[in-house]
From TrEMBL:
Name of the molecule in the record: N5-carboxyaminoimidazole ribonucleotide synthase
Coiled coil: none
Name of a matching Pfam family: PurK_C
Binding site for ATP: 107, 147, 152-158, 182-185, 190, 213, 266-267
Occurrences of domain ATP-grasp (ranges): 111-296
This protein's encoding gene: purK
Keyword terms: ATP-binding, Ligase, Nucleotide-binding, Purine biosynthesis
Keyword match Plastid: no
Oligomer and partners: Homodimer.
Catalytic activity: 5-amino-1-(5-phospho-beta-D-ribosyl)imidazole + hydrogencarbonate + ATP = 5-carboxyamino-1-(5-phospho-D-ribosyl)imidazole + ADP + phosphate + 2 H(+)
Similarity section: Belongs to the PurK/PurT family.
Gene Ontology molecular function terms on file: 5-(carboxyamino)imidazole ribonucleotide synthase activity; ATP binding; metal ion binding; phosphoribosylaminoimidazole carboxylase activity
InterPro entries: ATP-grasp (IPR011761), ATP-grasp_carboxylate-amine (IPR003135), ATP_grasp_subdomain_1 (IPR013815), PreATP-grasp_dom_sf (IPR016185), PurK (IPR005875), PurK_C (IPR040686), PurT/PurK_preATP-grasp (IPR054350), Rudment_hybrid_motif (IPR011054)
C-alpha cells in the first residue's frame, strides 16, 4: 500500500489503559512508535509507550501538540469528548473514523443503527421520564434493564427492573441521565466476534469466543464457542456487515446473544476488546497487532486460530493468585502494571491453552 506507515512512524493513542498498553507493545513489534494521550498520571500504557502526554481532553493546545507529533490517531476507549475530536481530526487522520464513535457512544443511537441494518437486538425504548418508562414497560414487560445511554461500562449505569414496582428506583439510579430500557433476552450463551477491516475494505475475523460475565464484568472467554457451523458463519458475516456499513478501519468487538430465534446483537465496541485477549496466545496475529496493521494501512494478518484457549480476567484480589498462576502449565500471564488493587478493577488476564 502506498501510504503504509513506514518503520519509525508514530501512532497516537487516545487513552492510556491496558488496551493502550497492549496496542503499544504490538506496534513496537512492527517497528512503529506510539504516543499516548491520557489525562491520568502514570497510566499503564505509559510504561511501554515511546511518549506520553498527560493533559485534559479540554486542553486544546495539548491536543494540537500531540497531533503534530504523530502520523495517525487511534483510541482505546469510545467515550472521547466530541470537542477533542474536533481539534484532532483537522490535524491527523483518526482511525476508526468518527462515525463509529458517534454510533457507539450512545446506546439508543447504537441500537437504532443496528436495527436499521436489519439486525436483531433486544427490544428497547428511549426513556426520558417516568411516563415514558411506564409506557415502555407496558410494551417490553419485565424483567428489563434500564441503562444510561452514555458512559456505562462493566455493569455501571444500569438498574434491573424485575417488576413495575422497581421502576421509580431504577429511574432515580440514572441520576437524570438520558436512559434506554432494554428487555431481557432468553439466550443459551453470549459470544463475541473480534473483527478487523482495512481502508481498502478487506475484512478479517477471529473465531467467535464464548463469554461468561459475573456482576456485569467479563470473567472468561473460551474458544471455540459452542456454536454450529451456520451460527459461526452468521456471526462473522454479521460483524462484517457492521464494519462495512461504518466504512470502518481497525478492530471492533461485536457481542452477540445466541437465541433459538437466531443471533441478537448485544453491543459493539469500536476498539480492541477484552473478549479478544485470547488471540494473544491462540493466533499468530493477535487483535492488537491486527488493529495496528489496519490503522497503519498495513495488510491485515491471518487471524486463524492454532489453539483452543480460555482467557480469564484477573479482577481485584484475583491478583493474589499470581504465585499459583505462575506455576500453571500452558498458562500465559498478562499483567497491566496497575498499582492499586481495587474491587472490580481489571488487573490483568491469563490465557490458558486447552489440550485434549
Amino acid at each position: 500500500m502506498s501510504d503504509q506507515l513506514p518503520q519509525g512512524a508514530t501512532i497516537g493513542i487516545l487513552g492510556g489503559g491496558q488496551l493502550g498498553r497492549m496496542l503499544s507493545v504490538a506496534a513496537s513489534r512492527l517497528g512503529l512508535r506510539t504516543h499516548v494521550f491520557e489525562p491520568g498520571a502514570n497510566p499503564p500504557a505509559g510504561h511501554v509507550a515511546d511518549a506520553v502526554t498527560t493533559a485534559s481532553y479540554e486542553d486544546h493546545d495539548a491536543l494540537a501538540e500531540f497531533a503534530a507529533s504523530v502520523d495517525v490517531i487511534t483510541y482505546e476507549f469510545e467515550n472521547i469528548p466530541t470537542a477533542a475530536l474536533d481539534v484532532l481530526q483537522e490535524l491527523r487522520p483518526i482511525r476508526p473514523g468518527r462515525e463509529a464513535l458517534r454510533v457507539s457512544q450512545d446506546r439508543l443511537t447504537e441500537k437504532t443503527f443496528l436495527t436499521d441494518l436489519g439486525l436483531r437486538t433486544a427490544p428497547f425504548a428511549d426513556i426520558t421520564d417516568a411516563d415514558s418508562l411506564a409506557a415502555a414497560l407496558e410494551v417490553i414487560g419485565t424483567p428489563a434493564i434500564l441503562k444510561t445511554r452514555r458512559f456505562g461500562y462493566d455493569g455501571k449505569g444500569q438498574a434491573r427492573i424485575l417488576g413495575p414496582e422497581d421502576a421509580a428506583k431504577a429511574l432515580e439510579d440514572m441520576r437524570g441521565a438520558p436512559a434506554i430500557l432494554e428487555g431481557f433476552v432468553e439466550f443459551s450463551c453470549e459470544v463475541s466476534v473480534i473483527a478487523a477491516r482495512s481502508a481498502d475494505g478487506s475484512v478479517a475475523c477471529f473465531d467467535p469466543g464464548e463469554n461468561i460475565h459475573r456482576e456485569g464484568i467479563l470473567r472468561t472467554t473460551t474458544v471455540p464457542a459452542r456454536l454450529s457451523g451456520k451460527q459461526r458463519t452468521d456471526a462473522v458475516l454479521l460483524a462484517a456487515q457492521i464494519l462495512n456499513a461504518l466504512n470502518y478501519v481497525g478492530v471492533m468487538g461485536v457481542e452477540l446473544f445466541v437465541t433459538p430465534q437466531g443471533l441478537l446483537v448485544n453491543e459493539m465496541a469500536p476498539r480492541v476488546h477484552n473478549s479478544g485477549h485470547w488471540t494473544q496466545n491462540g493466533c499468530t496475529i493477535d487483535q492488537f497487532e491486527q488493529h495496528i496493521r489496519a490503522v497503519a494501512n498495513w495488510p491485515l494478518g491471518d487471524g486463524s486460530r492454532y489453539a483452543d484457549v480460555q482467557m480469564e480476567n484477573l479482577i481485584g484480589d484475583d491478583l493474589d493468585r499470581l504465585p499459583e498462576l505462575a506455576r500453571e502449565a500452558d498458562t500465559a500471564i498478562h499483567l497491566y502494571g496497575k498499582g492499586a488493587v481495587k474491587a472490580g478493577r481489571k488487573m490483568g488476564h491469563v490465557n490458558r491453552i486447552i489440550r485434549g
